[in-house]
Write a structure and sequence with these properties.
This protein is of the alpha+beta class and about 450 residues long. The chain has 14 helices and 19 strands. It has three domains: about 20-115, ACT domain (Alpha-Beta Plaits); about 120-235 and about 340-450, Alpha-Beta Plaits (2-Layer Sandwich), CATH 3.30.70; about 250-340, ACT domain (Alpha-Beta Plaits), CATH 3.30.70.260. The N and C termini lie far apart (about 75 Å).
């Protein structure tokens, strides 16, 4: 039998164009008086806009304006950014990281280690096992989930929890209490999965009620949460007013989709209350819906944000049917509202231990508080948790509840209580401050230790 001789392809050929025309990144602090300009010129490639926005968002930078052009073979973007205090970027380490991450070797950088807690992996990353959960939300559910893990001697090292349209999605990093390694024993994983499924499922046998997974590929956590909700079709009920909306009415984003015949694009216009990571959430959703952003203009002066995207489907088609346009509008509205939380923000700092998350969420539940969003991370031996909570009965959280929390947990951990301004507030300064407050707690540990 004759041998089949396949042609030889140099494995480096794919990166040839990048090596010939490497990305050019500049961080300009002189051209603008009140912000830093981040300019990126690069060969165009699928997903490059999301990659750039993701890096800037992970640094908790506020993008006040952006001009995006990536039609054809070249990608040229200018981002006006500030830190979360509204100041120019002056930290040399931050500037150096931006230049390296967006530069020629940025795709080779292992940002999993550089920025812990931002990515999840297949089955486990290093010393952590990643768990995905999605199901119907109910008061005390997070407390029940964390109690199951604590009873199995499994420590929650980091977690992100979102709720939207009475659904809950979370990604948790866990490890073994004894050896602080990833939980990789098949029997133990099977037991954990079965118990978590029972908690998520509750009394309902419907398969849509809850799902548990230990495998999801290398994906940014926030993007993965969007993907989980999108697959769950949480956007289908975005027009329905829920009890949460009655408790704290949200300003509904104004989203339109029009056809630009002259240029051959569909134009998506979004106007909403400004907030941290708004640009990321929108670009992430368009990307995962298989749309390519060729041009865009972003502006967020004042409490409102205005964004305009010129898009096509990956196959080059525009959004021609009314059904497709309506679906894009619903999905973007859902993406914008998933991250919005109102009521109280509780920031806690304590020495990490197995069962800490279970203890804190139990106390919140016993005081009649429902968690609408949560972030958990561990730095060294310190656990830093942020919970957005509201009264489970639908009323504003009163001062007696806050004082009870302080008395019950104040002797074992540091507690900082913040009021999150209503997104419908007419007070521009409060809305602006809220918009520029990052959910990721950046310097929380430094504040507590100062």
């Amino acid at each position: 039998m004759a041998k089949v001789c396949w042609p030889y392809f140099d494995p480096e050929y794919e990166n040839l164009s990048t090596r010939i025309n490497p990305p050019r990144v500049s961080v300009d602090n002189t051209s603008c008086s009140d912000c830093t300009l981040v300019k990126v010129d690069s060969m165009n490639k699928p997903g490059i806009l999301l990659e750039v926005v993701q890096i800037l968002s992970d640094l908790d930078l506020i993008i006040t304006k952006a001009y995006i052009s990536s039609d054809g073979g070249w990608f040229m973007d200018v981002f006006h950014v500030t830190d979360h205090h509204g100041k120019k970027l002056t930290d040399s380490k931050t500037i150096d990281y931006i230049e390296k991450a967006l530069g020629p070797n940025g795709h080779r950088t292992d940002r999993t280690k550089t920025w812990p807690g931002k990515r999840v992996g297949v089955h486990s990353i290093g010393d952590h096992t990643a768990i995905e959960l999605i199901g119907r939300d109910r008061p005390g559910l997070l407390s029940e989930i964390s109690a199951v893990l604590a009873n199995l001697d499994i420590n929650v090292v980091a977690a992100e929890v979102w709720t939207h349209n009475r659904r809950i999605a979370c990604v948790l990093y866990v490890n073994d209490k004894i050896n602080c390694r990833a939980v990789d024993d098949p029997n133990r994983l099977s037991i954990m999965e079965e118990q978590l499924k029972n908690i998520i499922r509750g009394d309902d046998d419907d398969e849509k009620v809850g799902r548990t997974s230990f495998s999801m590929g290398f994906t940014h956590v926030d993007r993965r949460l969007h993907q989980m909700f999108f697959a769950d079709k949480d956007y289908e009920n975005c027009g329905v007013t829920t009890d949460a909306d009655k408790y704290s009415p949200l300003m509904k984003p104004k989203i339109t989709v029009e056809h630009c015949k002259e240029k051959g694009y569909s134009v998506v216009s979004v106007r909403s209350k400004d907030r941290a990571k708004l640009l990321f959430d929108i670009v992430c959703t368009l990307t995962d819906m298989q749309y390519v952003v060729s041009h865009a203009t972003i502006s967020s002066d004042g409490p409102d944000a205005s964004q305009e995207y010129y898009i096509r489907h990956m196959d080059g088609c525009t959004l021609d049917s009314e059904g497709e346009k309506e679906r894009v509008i619903k999905c973007l509205e859902a993406a914008i509202r998933r991250r919005v939380s109102e009521g109280l923000s509780l920031e806690l700092c304590a020495k990490d231990r197995v069962g800490l998350l279970s203890e804190v969420t139990r106390i919140l539940r016993e005081n009649g508080l429902s968690v609408t969003r949560a972030g958990v991370t561990t730095v060294g031996e310190q656990a830093m948790n942020v919970f957005y909570v509201r009264d489970s009965s639908g009323n504003p959280v009163d001062m007696k509840t806050i004082e009870a929390l302080r008395k019950e947990i104040g002797h074992t951990m540091m507690l900082n209580v913040k009021k999150v301004p209503s997104s419908g507030s007419a007070k521009a300064p409060e809305s602006s401050n809220w918009a520029k407050t990052s959910f990721f707690f950046g310097n929380l540990l430094e504040r507590f230790l100062a």
